[in-house]
From TrEMBL:
Belongs to the Gfo/Idh/MocA family. It comes from Deinandra increscens subsp. villosa. Residues 138-260 form the GFO/IDH/MocA-like oxidoreductase domain. Residues 7-125 form the Gfo/Idh/MocA-like oxidoreductase N-terminal domain. This is Gfo/Idh/MocA-like oxidoreductase N-terminal domain-containing protein. InterPro entries: Gfo/Idh/MocA-like_OxRdtase_N, GFO_IDH_MocA-like_dom, NAD(P)-bd_dom_sf. It comes from the Eukaryota.
Length: 361
């Protein structure tokens, strides 16, 4: 027997909500039941432009979405400064919470969100889409292969995009009252998540930010980077995030036996195909005139884009809760909190003059 479709309510008409609403409608186990904005006109236009079902309830307030009995799950793509208020309210209304990243301005805010979800028995997940692409699982298998990859020693992750003048002046991600983490929250979140993912979510001992991050006139970070150090086994990682550099979405992982590289880990260049490259036991050729073997390319196909796979997985977890088979899965809360803890350490390192900051979970 087919599972009943779970019904999403969406809070606000952010650009990213267009992508996720498409995913909700592509997923076979979900639909959109409600959309809310600060104005009814904007919500109505958004629903029409993005081909929402005719049955979708359209509201001029966010509270109306949370009060709608036909909403099972709330997707929250609001500015980060509003996450605490509305994610907690959603949980208190017994709505499961899919929260856009960065999930909070700091770990204290996230803890309040997670506490509300736990006390109300609802599922929490952050909307880091690449985690759900089948390529991600395949890459993890190769990183765990002692013969082909060996022990992980170094990871570098970079996410940059050269934003235009209008973005730099008007986007919420450069407004200190809406998304004060700037590029660190928007782009650095992905880089830090990639590093933690490669390390099986083992937290580093310290984080040290590179000197001279770039700020806008309002004090919002537009470009920064840091080193993460595990100390006890020689593992280190670095990341760079920026609103100035050409589009880059790289992970480079170096092991004692092999390397892994992916060029589009956040959003695949083609939503139906994900590529990555590995090489093992590399050696110089005679006279160092070359080297080998050449990297192998892996191609991982998917019938659904990664954001639809994310939605489908979230729906699966909610179905298990509703049927009584399981309690809310805590893995996603733990992963989100670890990512946020590292972001907090980056902020602390900057504020304290780029000194090493101990990471405390």
């Amino acid at each position: 027997m087919a599972e009943t479709q779970l019904r999403f309510g969406i809070l606000c008409c952010a650009e990213i909500a267009r992508k996720v609403s498409r995913a909700i409608l592509l997923s076979p186990t979900t639909t959109i039941s409600a959309i809310g904005s600060r104005s009814l006109e904007k919500a109505t236009a958004f629903a029409s432009e993005n081909h929402f079902p005719e049955s979708t309830h359209v509201y001029g307030t966010y509270d109306a979405v949370l009060d709608d009995p036909d909403v099972d799950i709330v997707y929250v793509p609001l500015p980060t400064s509003l996450h605490l208020r509305w994610a907690v309210r959603a949980a208190e209304k017994k709505k499961h919470v899919l929260l856009e990243k960065p999930v909070a301005l700091n770990v204290a805010e996230l803890d309040a969100i997670l506490a509300a979800c736990e006390s109300n028995g609802v599922q929490f997940m952050d909307a880091t889409m690449w985690m759900h692409h089948p390529r991600t699982e395949k890459m993890k298998q190769l990183l765990s292969d002692d013969q082909r990859f060996g022990q992980l020693k170094y990871v570098h992750s970079a996410y940059s995009i050269a934003e235009e003048d209008d973005f730099m002046k008007n986007d919420i991600r450069v407004n200190p009252n809406l998304d004060s983490l700037g590029a660190l929250g928007d782009a650095g979140w992905y880089c830090i998540r990639a590093i933690l993912w490669a390390h099986d979510y083992d937290l580093p001992k310290t984080v040290t930010t590179f000197p001279d991050p770039v700020y806008n006139e309002s004090g919002v970070i537009l470009s920064c980077g840091a080193t993460l150090n595990w100390k006890n086994d020689g593992k280190i990682a670095t990341f760079y995030c920026s609103f100035f550099s050409n589009l880059c979405m790289d992970i480079i992982a170096l092991g004692t036996r092999g390397n892994l590289r992916v060029h589009d880990f956040i959003i695949p260049f083609n939503e139906k195909v994900g590529h990555f490259y590995t090489v093992a036991n590399s050696m110089w050729a005679e006279l160092a005139l070359g080297c080998g073997p050449e990297p192998s390319e892996f191609t991982i196909s998917t019938d659904l884009p990664q954001e639809a796979l994310m939605v489908r997985e979230f729906a699966r977890l909610v179905h298990r809760i509703r049927s009584g088979e399981a309690k809310p899965e805590k893995k996603w809360a733990v992963i989100s909190r670890k990512t946020q803890v590292v972001i907090d350490a980056v902020v602390a390192s900057i504020k304290n003059g780029f000194v090493p900051i101990e990471v405390v979970y």
